Amino acid sequence: MGMNLNRLLALTILVPSVFVVGLSVLSYFPHRAALFSHQQEHLILATLMVAGIVPFSFFVFQVFHRIERHVMEQNTRLEQRTKEMEALLWVERAANKSLELSAVLGSALEAMVGTTSAEEAEVWLVDDKDGSLVLGHHHPKGERPFAGGAHLSPGEGYAGLVASTSERILTHDLAQDERFLGQRIRDSGFQSLYALPLRRGERVTGVLAVGARDARSLASDEELRLLEIMAEHIAVAVENARLHEEVRTLAVLTERERIAREMHDGLAQVLGYVNTKAQAVKELLQAGQAAEAARHLEQLEASARETYADVREAILALRSDTRERPLMDGLRDYVHRFGDLSGISAEFVVRGGPVPFSPEAELQLLRIVQESLANVRKHAQARRAEVSFSFEDGNCRLVVADDGRGFDPTHLSRGQWPHFGLRSMQERAASIGASFNLDARPGGGTRVIVDIPVKGGNGRP
User: Fold this and answer.
1) What are the pLDDT digits (tens) for 42-66?
2) Cα separation of 429 and 448, whole Å?
3) Average pLDDT of the chain?
4) Mean pLDDT of 349-373
């Protein structure tokens, strides 16, 4: 294009100049030979000039018109490429921003409809157990899926066929296609549909389908290529979401097993203690030592109260679930309920602007707070306790403080660590990249301090 413009520039300068010089030279000979009158010479020159300039001007205009059309086509392609890149970035951002599959699919399908000729889009997910398909998301929201329902048997409809064969399907005549099951899409006038598999390696994890009412839609190679690239991004997001859900499920199961084991060990100790005390009371009563037997019964009563408090606290811990709401809200409710159950004045304080944590960090912080408060109830003999989160300068500090009797950390024997749960809290903090510190002294209360780095403000230590 640069050489063409240079040549055009040379032509627009040189050709008119040569033409004018040529006319001047030609006019010299008739004038010298007195072949024409002065008026005839001017008329002939004017005619020759018009005959030369008009075709040349038309030629230049045609060249400029072609250049303009070429530039407009390039701008159109550039705008389309820009829209495609924006759509891909939108999908990629959604996949990186959230591990919640519904949010990722919603953003991805919205981007597809906004940047292609598709009017509706949906994603079906393959159930690994029986190979059936479940509707993951449909855009626009509220519209019924192409197949009419939200569940397809293996091999059923376009989605089932694509999932079973791992091959793309493109049609521009849905009304005449017997493979399609959805009466709703025919009634809505849809003509074009493109369905393609979502693959992770050799495994098909789902199906992407887009539809349009115009039979000429979804026809360009560029558009189909864009949809294929988007499908690859969605496949990655689906796999990440599933892996994330598996990790969360494993974490929950591990946590439940740990609590069950702790409850079993604790109850086993209590039952052994009760059995020993009961035998002692029986022997004391047989020996006529009623006062000593009463003392043992009082100890049994205190142990029953303590066990009852442990069980209620364990139930409260199991019911605490922050998956459906922000961590701060869940902890606030937990601390208030802990205060009601224990009789200790418990407060929850947040300083600064909270940032979201990863699910793993949320679980570990929740358990650290629960274990810290359990120690306050069992050992601190405190009247007040405070749980505080402070967010400042890319860091978060969790502090669980009480006004109890405290202790000397330097004189803790190895056997006391599990008793106070300190080692468990240290390990939980270390698993999320946080530091754990203990500030305690006899008669001065205790503070459990956990510093959590918040890299980039995303709460993922």
Assistant:
1) 676 677 677 777 777 777 777 777 7
2) 11
3) 77
4) 86
For residue 388, pLDDT over 70 is answered with: yes
Q: Which of 169, 173, 167 is nearest to 192 (CA)?
A: 173
Task: Measure the CA–CA gap between 388 and 336, rounded to whole angstroms.
Answer: 13
Buried-exposed string 241-255: b where 16+ CB fall within 10 A, e elsewhere: bbebeeeeeeeeeeb
> Does residue 354 contact residue 389 with C-beta atoms inside 8 Å?
yes
Burial class (CB in 10 A: 0-12, 13-18, 19+), 213: middle
| DSSP, res 456 | G
Report how far apart the first and last C-alpha atoms of the chain are (Å, whole number).
53
Residue 415 · residue 384 · CB < 8 Å: no
Residue 460 has pLDDT above 60, yes or no: no
Instruction: Catalogue all structural domains in the chain, each as residue range(s) with its CATH number.
Output: 2-94 (no CATH), 112-240 (3.30.450.40), 320-461 (3.30.565.10)
Residue 199 CA, distance from chain mean position: 19
In the structure encoding, which two tokens stand for residue 234, read together?
């969605």
